[in-house]
Amino acid sequence: MDTHLTYAETLSREPRKWLMTMAIVLICLFLLAWSASAMQSNSTGGSGLSVAKGIVSGILHPTPSLLLTLGDDGVPYLLFETMAIAFLGTLVGAVLSLPFAFLGASNIVPKPVSIIIRLAVMAIRTIPAFVYGLMFIMVTGPGAFAGLLTMSTCSIGMLSKMFIESIEELDRGIIESLDAAGCNTFDKIRYGILPQLMPSFSSTLIYRFDMNLRDASVLGLVGAGGIGAPLMFAMNSYRWNDVGAILLGLIILVLLVEWVSSKLRTKLMRG
Amino acid sequence: MRRNDSTSLFDRLFKPVTYTLSDGHQVTQKRSRLPLVLVLIVVATIVSGEVTGFSFSTLVRRIGYFFVILRDMFPPDWAYMPRVWQPLMDTIKMSLLGSFIGALLCIPFSVLCASNLIHNRFVTAFFKLFYSVVRTLPTLVIALIATYIFGLGTFAGTVAIAVFTFAYCGKILYEQIETADMGSYEALEALGMGRLSTIRYAIWPQVFPQFISTVLFCFEGNVRYASILGYVGAGGLGLILNERIGWMEYARVGMILIALFITVVIIETVSSYLRSKLI
Known about the structure:
The complex is a heterodimer of chains A (271) and B (279).
Chain A: H1 7-12, H2 18-36, H3 47-60, H4 64-68, H5 75-104, H6 111-126, H7 129-140, H8 144-168, H9 172-180, H10 185-221, H11 228-236, H12 240-270
Helix pairs in contact in A: 3-12, 5-8, 5-10, 6-8, 7-8, 8-10, 9-10, 10-11, 10-12, 11-12
Chain B: H1 9-13, E1 17-20, E2 26-29, H2 34-52, H3 56-62, H4 66-72, H5 85-113, H6 121-136, H7 139-150, H8 154-178, H9 183-190, H10 195-229, H11 237-246, H12 250-278
């Protein structure tokens, strides 16, 4: 290599990627133009602005009675119910996704099996939450129970994907050395596998709980309990002050849970 | 953090075990927190079970009804496919445009969040809080509000997806900016470059590939999400999905879901290939 290059020479040796860049930009522009073609909306006839004003003032002036009552229809109880749904939903979802996780990890089962399991997980993920909601309402009737089951089914996709990743990262060396030390299968699982999986599994679960709490409003659509249903009712009947109260409660709760969960997860990751 | 030096409350309540080794040294082992965590989880499970009315017997007895709708979906109504194309394309277009707008919008806001670029702590804290609040708003609620403001149709859905993408990608982007290597930034600053061009030449090349990867990942999820936005009238696949469910035409619902599944698989494969190329 000739090391005595001037700056200009070095600069001229920079790989010329402008053709590639141009092609990518052109493709992106084409895709954007293509997707802009579908944009249409039935004009609301100028009422949009007044609705926006109503929403903003409603969120700024939430109904105090709704926020502070402890009864069945007050925000505190609804939030509590939503948290219960999210918690049990995450737990049941974790139990449901464990078999998928172990059967989908390519270091445990042969490749074809893991591919089939992964496709199955993808298929489970594709069905939208409200379709599951309808299915579970047939099982349990409308209410929080249906919401919980919907939430756990919707969690399977993401949970098993993350579980699979942490299982595939398992360090085989530890298990082999336990083997060499004469441990039996139970010892190997207890001291070799569980300590490796627990931190990442619990971190995933805490994260999913966070997400489930956020997604809880979807359940309200199909009448599956939680804070979503009152929120949707309030929005459909333009009671913006009630909407403001519910949203305020939800925002505060989610921010709080997010703060706690990120603290817990950094603690778990540091060991 | 402050607790690190002194013993935590847990260790003061449950004293660590002290072992004396054969050479006379004493070692202490902290008590496991597992029992406490287990007790908390069990209590939370019981309370949640009470609140939600969880019952195993109902579940076992009536789980068969879960498959009633699922069974009706097969065989899917293949003849319905020609009428699925248009909404399916709408869904893809909505998520494409929404992801693009959201990703573009979040760049300036993320710069304002990054504490290594903006030295005013009030400004960074304000914009971080802004991101958190936007992220707590459920996408469906944003979509519903958007249909009130912009009218029914794909535009409302695009707005909802843009807002979601904005909040999601923005948070990841500002975290990446904050962990970027500041050496080249300082070097360029020392050369007398302006604020914007320093960011352009020192920070941007570091975060760009990762950022595009985040946006692609978000886009994958958005296609899935866009399909439920139609439920509140925000256009796309959800519109006909909701309609067919209302008419209980489950064979057609099955067709819609299969079309969505194949689309999602294709998009995820392409996007994960692109992402593996990026990093």
